[in-house]
Design brief:
The chain folds into two domains: 204 residues, no CATH class; 213 residues, no CATH class. Helix content is 81%, strand content 0%. It is built from 14 helices and no strands. Helix 5 runs antiparallel to helix 6, helix 9 packs antiparallel against helix 10 and helix 13 runs antiparallel to helix 14. The longest helix is centred in the N-terminal third of the chain and has 43 residues.
Length: 467
């Protein structure tokens, strides 16, 4: 026993860079699994139902993006508050945050399902769905909206798990969900009268499997979220719900602004014909993979910052931010270099050699490098959000999107044509980084290391008390 204690004491503590890299790997794989699941659904719809199947799902995309913004906002609040309680080693607070997040997720999901079941016909007509696919689009939209309670609850569970530093459980849960979806989707789409709505049923089964895997891993790891553990603490809190909203709503509004920008950019691209639209669609598939490290670094920075705030160790924030910025300069830049070099080959998965492939390659090479700027912004915003400054960074992001990206895209498109549209992305990401950097320095000077009412103070590392 003494030898073990001596060996543990002699073992050097992991560096911040090591901790980042240990968390980044499962986070990146999680994003890859999410993307792979979407690609597989599209593959089966295209091969089993043809163009109409893909069009049916595409008609629901604006609604899906709205729901995604709600899920991401809720997840951001749950991750940070769970991280603060975990950093304070307060298992009771961890469970209270979990109960609040699950109740909020279920409540929002049920509201979406109830409204969707009633409004689906009107909603799809309002979106201008072509008449030849309208009945199928209504069935698909209604089915997907009815599944939302399970999607919201599963997303909340994975966000809470990440907040406690456990990114492996969400990764395994999503792996299981992706495999189940890959098996169920073709069977339900082609083997039943459901058609495209079979994707929704497959999603339901996959989310239930993901929740089952999460719960099983929590029980195996004696996690505070394990069923039957500290049941008296599983009570939602109105105060925590308000704090979750203060963190989550700005993140949701930022996502909505990004959705608006995507719609406007797509409208500009569509002016140049279907070939330009096809090039844009293929390029976004490749660029989504370039964004994975930038997104993962933002989540990791939020988790580590929340742990430091909860533990009352705000002096660790500069090291967390600087390490995240440094890793972004290497990891995200490496992905950008790879995309730049391999774009012509990767895009052949979607496009035949020719002018459209050349257009898509030019889009990837224009935008990929700017993702490094986005990654730096993500690290700064995540640290500020975990420290209590959530609203202003989100407003600055929205200002860069609405006040810089859209006007620049319109102006450059008029001057340079299609390629001018995509130069707006680097300009917007640069503006976002400058605004976030200036606000970060302002808050650092004004408040020391930011200010926010914290949770119970405790040590920064180790398991939560009672875990």
């Amino acid at each position: 026993m003494n030898e073990q204690a001596t060996a543990s004491a002699a073992r050097p503590a992991p560096t911040m860079r090591t901790r980042y890299l240990a968390l980044l790997t499962p986070l990146f794989l999680t994003h890859a699994l999410q993307s792979a699941g979407g690609l597989m659904d599209g593959f089966w719809l295209g091969h089993l139902l043809g163009v109409r199947g893909i069009a049916t799902v595409a008609s629901f995309f604006p609604v899906f993006f709205l729901l995604l913004s709600l899920i991401i906002g809720l997840g951001a609040g749950a991750t940070i508050l769970a991280g603060q309680a975990w950093g304070a080693r307060d298992a009771a607070q961890v469970r209270t945050v979990g109960a609040t997040a699950f109740v909020a997720a279920l409540g929002i999901g049920l509201a979406v399902a109830a409204a969707g079941a009633w409004c689906a016909p009107w909603l799809m007509q309002a979106l201008g769905t072509p008449s030849d696919i309208l009945p199928a689009a209504i069935r698909y939209a209604r089915a997907m909206l009815l599944v939302m309670p399970f999607v919201f609850v599963a997303w909340a569970g994975m966000s809470l798990s990440r907040g406690t530093g456990d990114a492996l459980s969400p990764m395994w849960a999503l792996l299981a969900a992706t495999l189940v979806g890959a098996a169920c989707t073709p069977l339900l789409v082609a083997g039943t009268p459901l058609g495209a709505a079979g994707v929704a049923v497959s999603t339901l089964v996959a989310q239930l499997v993901a929740l089952a895997v999460l719960i099983r891993r929590w029980r195996q790891g004696n996690h505070p979220f394990a069923t039957g553990t500290g049941w008296q603490d599983w009570k939602p809190s109105a105060a925590i719900a308000k704090r979750m909203l203060r963190i989550g709503l700005p993140a949701a509004f930022q996502m909505l602004a990004m959705a608006l920008a995507e719609i406007v950019l797509l409208g500009l691209v569509n002016r140049h014909g279907s070939n330009a639209t096809a090039a844009y669609g293929a390029a976004t598939q490749v660029l989504s993979w370039v964004q994975f490290p930038a997104m993962s670094l933002g989540i990791a920075a939020a988790i580590f910052s929340a742990h430091a705030v909860g533990a009352g160790r705000r002096e660790r924030l500069p090291a967390i931010v600087s390490t995240g910025l440094g890793l972004n300069a290497v990891v995200t830049a490496l992905f950008a270099v790879t995309a730049h070099l391999l774009a012509p080959y990767a895009l052949r998965v979607f496009l035949e050699p020719g002018p459209v492939l050349e257009q898509a390659t030019a889009i990837v090479r224009t935008v990929a490098w700017s993702v490094v700027l986005l990654g730096w912004s993500n690290v700064l915003v995540s640290a500020m959000r975990a420290s209590g400054a959530a609203l202003v960074p989100a407003l600055l992001s929205m200002a860069a999107i609405v006040g810089v990206e859209l006007p620049v895209a319109v102006a450059l498109e008029a001057r340079f044509g299609l390629r001018g549209v995509f130069w707006a992305c680097p300009v917007a990401f640069l503006a976002m980084l400058v605004l976030h950097g200036l606000y970060y320095r302002h808050k650092e000077k004004k408040d020391g290391l930011f200010s926010q009412p914290g949770v119970t103070l405790g040590a920064a590392d180790g398991r939560a008390r009672g875990a």
